[in-house]
Amino acid sequence: MGYVSDEQRKAVHASKADGGKGAPSKMKSPLYAKLSAKCKAAARRKFDVYPSAYANMWASKQQKKGKC
Question: If you write DSSP's letter for every residue of 5-39 in order, what string do you get?
């Protein structure tokens, strides 16, 4: 069977081996964690335009630091 990418091959074999629990598409990534309501509110207060790339980046960094 031909795979489009190495990631696809890993996903197929991971899903077969452990019943789908280790498939990359089903894993939660901390990179894509949702912003908390507190951080969104803080970004709205700090920036004139929300949502914006700058405001979201700032809110994301604050959340990672545990400040909001």
Answer: SHHHHHHHHHHHHHTTTT-GGGS--GGGPPPPHHH
Token digits for 54?
């700058």
pLDDT at 22 over 80: no
Displacement of CA 9 from its chain's centroid (Å): 22
**SS3 label, residue 64:** helix
Closest by Cα among 37, 44, 10 to 26: 10
45-63 residue pLDDT tens: 999 999 999 999 999 999 9
| Lookup: tokens for 63 | 């959340």
Residues 6+ apart with CB under 8 A from 54: 47
Residue holding tokens 């077969």? 16
Cβ-contact 63, 33 below 8 angstroms: yes
